[in-house]
Amino acid sequence: MAVGEMPAQRNYSGEILKATFSKLNPREMLHNPVMFVVEVGTVVVAWLAIVANTASAQSYDWLVTVILFVTLLFATFAEAYAEARGRAQADFLRRTKSSTRARLMQKDGSTVLVESSELVKGSHIVVEAGDTLPGDGVVVEGVGSVDESAITGESAPVVKSKEDAVTGGTVLLSDRLVVEITVNPGETFLDRMIALVEGASRQKTPNEISLSALLGVLTLIFVLVVVTLVPIASYFGPHATNTTTMVALLVCLIPTTIGALLSAIGIAGMNRVSLHNVVAKSGRSVEAAGDIDTIILDKTGTITIGNRMATEFLPVPGVSLETLAEAALISSLADTTPEGRSVVELAQKVLKMPELPEYEGEPIPFSATTRMSGIDLEDGRNVRKGAVSAISEITDNTPKELQEQADMVARDGGTPLGVEIDGQALGIIRLKDIVKTGLKERFAEFRSMGIRTVMATGDNRITAGVIAAEAGVDDFIAEAKPEDKIELIKKEQSEGKLVAMTGDGTNDAPALAQADVGLAMNSGTMAAKEAGNMIDLESNPTKLLEVVMVGKQLLITRGSLTTFSIANDVAKYFAIIPAMFAAVPALHVLGALNIMHLKTPHGAILSALIFNALIIPALIPFAIRGVKYRAESADKMLGRNIFNWGVLGVIIPFVGIWGIDRILGLFGLA
Amino acid sequence: MSIQTILTWAVVIGVFLVTLKPLGTYMVRVFTFQPTILDRPLKPIENFIFRVIGVDRESSMSAKEYSLSLILTNFAWAVGAYILLRLQGQLPFNPQHFGAVNPQLAFNTATSFTTNTNWQAYAGESTMSYFSQFAVLSYLQFVTPATGGAAGIAFLRTLSGRKLGNFFVDLTLMTTRLLLPLSIIVTLILVAQGIPEALSPYLHVHSIVGQTQVVPRGPIASWEAIEHLGQNGGGYTNANSANPLESPTALTNVVLTIAMGLLPVAFFYAFGVITGRRRLGWTLIGVAGVLYLVMLALLYFPEAAGNPIINAIGLHTHANMVGKETRFGIGGTAIFSTSTMAFTTGSVASAHDSFLPISSIAFYMAMFLNMVFGGKGVGLLNMLMFVIITVFLIGLMVGRTPEFLGKKIEAKEVSLASVAFLIHPLLILAGTALAVATPAGMAGVFNPGPHGLSEIIYGFTSAAANNGSAFGGLGAALPFYEVALGIVVVIGRYASIIAMLFIGQSLLQKKAVPESAGTMHTDTVLFGGVLLGSIVILNALTFFPIMALGPIAEQYLMMAHHLF
What we know:
The complex is a heterodimer. By secondary structure, chain A is of the alpha+beta class. In chain A, the strands form four sheets. A seven-stranded mixed beta sheet of chain A has the order 10-22-21-20-11-18-19, sandwiched between helices. Chain A has a six-stranded antiparallel beta sheet with strand order 2-1-3-9-4-7, with no helix packed on it. Chain B is an all-alpha fold. The interface between A and B is large, with 72 and 66 residues.
C-alpha cells in the first residue's frame, strides 16, 4: 500500500484563464457589488454601441465597452490568480493523501484492507513500516518513527508512541503502530487546510464585512451622484449628458480598485499563513491575530531552546578546573539527556579534548530518590553529579563554598549541579536556559507595536525573572500551572484585550480554547489540536509571531488599497467633468477645470477609464504579497501609509491620466 | 481689511474661545446631574414638570425608546402647530386680523419649524398673528433645538460609558438650563439696542415725504434671541436679520452672531469633557474651526474685492455691496453669513442670492458638510459620524480592527454611519433632480443659466441640512416646493440622529480595548489633518458635479462676461 497516484502536473495558467472568464457569471459577480455595477455598465454600453447611429459614436461606445470589459477581467483575474496560488499549495498537500488504503482492525484482531475514505472516527487500524498513514489519529499501541516531511518539510523522522497524535499523509518508517482514527473522512487537518487555501470554505471575516458595507454605500452614493446628474444636467438642454460617458464616470468613481482586489487580498492572506505551514481553522482567527494585545509564550521550547545547557564549571577552592571538568565528563558519559550531552561538550572544550576518552564502568541512572546520576568506574572511582543538597549529603567535609556557589548560580537564574568523586565535593556545573537568538529583537518589535509578551514557565520566580529579562519579555508567570494561564487569559480579556497563546499538551486545551488565537502544535495531543483555532504543522511555537504579522498585514493591505482607491477619484473628476459637458454650449466654460490639459473630451474620458483599469493589475502584487510592513507604533505607521497611499493616491492618477492621454494622442485617439 | 472688520471678527471668535470652556463644562455638569449654580431656583420647577409627566431625572431609555419618544413628541408638535396655524383667524393676539394659514403653507411651516429648519415660505409680518409668532413658532424655536441638543447629549453619554438618558429629562433641562437663561440675557441686550418687544398693533407712521408707512411690531427681541441661540433662523419679518427692526446696529449683528455659535462650539468642548478626552475635543474643534475660517475667507475676500466685471468697467472700485446692509459692511456680513451657515441657523443679514458665485460655494460647503460646529448637538453628531467613517477607512492601515474611544468599529457601526452619510446627498441630489425633471419644479425657476440651478440646489440643500436659509429667486411658495422641501426636512432631520443614537448604544455595549502603542490615536494633529482631508474629499466627490454645473460654471461664465 503506497501513496496513490500522483495527480498529473496541473495546468494552472489554463485554469486561471478559465476561472477569469467563468467568474464573469453575473450570479457569481453579485457577491461583489462594486464589480457587479461595472458588469451592468459594460452590458449597457455594449448595447449602446450596437444601436449607435453614427460611426464616431459607435467607435467611442465600443472603445468604452472594451475598456470596461478589460477592467472586469482584471478583477476576475486577480481573484482567479490568488485562488490558483492557493490551489497549487493545496495540490502539494493533496498528493500526500489521495486514496490510501488502510488495514482496518476487526474485533478479533485480524485486519482487512479498506479504502481510507471508509475510515470513520473510532476505527482502529494497523500501520506497518512503509505504510502511509491513512488519516489523523492517535497511537494506541506500539512505537515507531514517522516521516512527516510531506506536511512539515522537516526531513528528520519523529518517534511516535502511545497517545501521540499522527497525521494522515505521513509515512511510518519503522516498526508497527495501532492507531485510532480520530476524525471522519473529509474532516482531517489536510482537508481543512486544502479547503481553506483554495478559498472554497472562505467566509468573509468581520473586518471584510464592515469594509464591504462601506464600499457598498460608497458605490450607492456614486450611483446616486451619476444617476441624478442626468436629470440635473438636463437643465442645460435635453441632451446634456451622454449615457456612455455617464457609465464611464460611474465606473471611475466607484471603488473598483479595492472592489476588484478585496477577495484576492483575503485569499492571499490565508495563503501566507499556510506558507508558514500553519493551518488556520478559519479566516476569522487570522484576522483576530492582527488585533492581538497580549501573547502568552511557554518558556521551554518557545523562548528557550528546549533544554538547559552547561555553560560553566565552578570548582571549589583547592580543586582545579580540569579536575572538575574531567569528573563532570565522566559522570555524564552515560547520560543521554540533552543536559548530559551539553556537560560532555563543555568539558571537552575545557579540556581541549576533541575525542572522547574510553572509560569502562557501571552507569548509575538518575532516580527521583537519589536525585543524582553517575558512573562506577572499573578502576574503582565512583563519580556522581546531581542536586547540590544530595551531593552535600554523600560528601565529607563539604566546603561551604559549594553551597555558596550553588546559591549564586540559582540567583542568576541557572540550575546548579554538584559534582563529587569518591566522597569529595569538586564543584558546581552551571546549567542555563539558552534564549533563542533574535527573539529579544522580535519582542522589542512587538512592544513598539503595542503587543505585550508574557512568558509562562514552571520555574521558580528567580529563574523565571532572569530568563524573562534576558529574553526581553514584558512579563512572566513563574511556577505556572495550566490554570494560571487560563486565569491570565481571562483577566486580560476582561480588560478588553485579545490574547494569543501556543500549547501542545492536553492540559493546555482549556487555555487554547479560551484564547482568541490558540496555536496548537501538530506534535501535541488531539485535545490541544481540537481546542486551538490554528495548528502549526512544524510544531514551532515561535510561529505565533509570524501569524500575528500576517494578520496585521492583511488589515493594512485592505486599508491601504481602499484609501488609494478613493484618493484616486479626485483626478478622475478633473479629467471627466470638463470633458463630459464639452458638447453643451452653456457649459463650455467648465473647460477651465481641465487642469491636466487633456486634448479631447473623448480622449480624457478614455484616459481616466484606462487608468482606472490598469491600476488593478498594477496593484495585484501588493494584494498577493501584502503591503510592506514594519514594526512601529500605530501613529507612525499611519503617517507613513497616509502618505504612501493617500497623498500619493491623489497625485499618481493625475500623472497617470495625463501620460495615458499623451499616448492615446500618438494613436490619434485623443 | 478695515479695522471694523478685524475688530468684529476678533470679538466674535474671541467670545467663542472664551466661553467654550465654561459653557461646555457647565453643560456636562448639568447633563451628568452634578450640582450647578442654577439648581436652587430651577430644580423645584423641573421636579414639578418631571412629576407631572411621570419620569425620573436619572432614568434611562434604550436607543429605540429614545428615538421613538423623540419622533412622537416632534410629531405631536408638528400636528399641534399645523392645527393652530389653520385656526389662526379664531385665536387671540391677532390685532392685524390675519386669517387661517393655507394648508400647504401650514404643513411646510409646521414641519420646517419642528425640524429646526425654519425655512419660511411666507413673510412673517404679513401672514402670522402675534399668537402664531410667540405661542406657536417661538415655542417650537425653544423645544426643537432642545430636541437636537438632547440627541447630542444622549450620544455623548454613551461615548462616556453612561446610559443614554431620558429624552424628556434632556429636553426639559436643555430648555430650562441653557436656552431660557441665555435667551433672557440676549433679549435684554437686544431691547437695549432698540429692538421692539410689544404686543400692540403695527404702527402707521407718516414719513417726511408725506406718505404713510406701516411699521410692524411685536415680541421681536425675544424672538431674535431664541432664533439665534437655538440655531432656528426663521425671521420674525421676511427680511430676517437684515431688517433694522430685527438687527438695528453693528452691535446687534455681533450679538446675534455670537448667540448662534455659543452652544454649538461649547458642545464640541463638552464632548472632550464628558469623554475625558479633551485633546480629542480640541482636535475636532480645530477641524471645524479650520473649515469655519475657510468659509469666512471665501465669503469675505471675493466680496471685498468686488465684482470683477463692474470693477473692469470702472463704475465701482469697491466691495460688492449688492444685497448687503451698509450698517454691517462686508466684514460684519461675512461673519454673520459664515455663522448662520456653519451653525445651520439659516437667518440672514444679507441676500445670499447676491453673493458672487465663488463666495456662494461657502454656503453650499457649510450645508453639505453640516458639521462646521453645526446646530448644537446635531452638528457634533455629524462630525462624529465622519470621525467614525474616517477611523474605519484609515484605521485598517495600522493593522488592527479600527477603534474609536477604545471601542471597536465593526460592521454595525460602519453600516449605520455610512447610511447616515448617504441620506444627506440622497435628499439633495434626488430632490434637485426631481425639481429639474418636472415642470412643477422648473416653474419656480425665475433666473436663467446656472444661477437658476444653483437656487434649486440651495433650496434642497438648505432643507436637508435643516438650515432654512434661502437663495431668493426661487419660487419656493409653489405647492411642489412646499411639499417636497417639507418631506426633505423631516428625513434630513431624524434619519441621521436616530442612526447615531443606535451607534451610541452599540458602542456602549462593547468592551473598551485598552490603549497601547498599537492604538491609532485620534487626538493628534495628524489625525486632525486626515479627518479634514477625508471630510473634504468624500464630500467633494459627492457634490463636485452639481457644484460644477451651478456656482462653478456661473463663476467662469461671469469671468467670461455672462451675467445672470
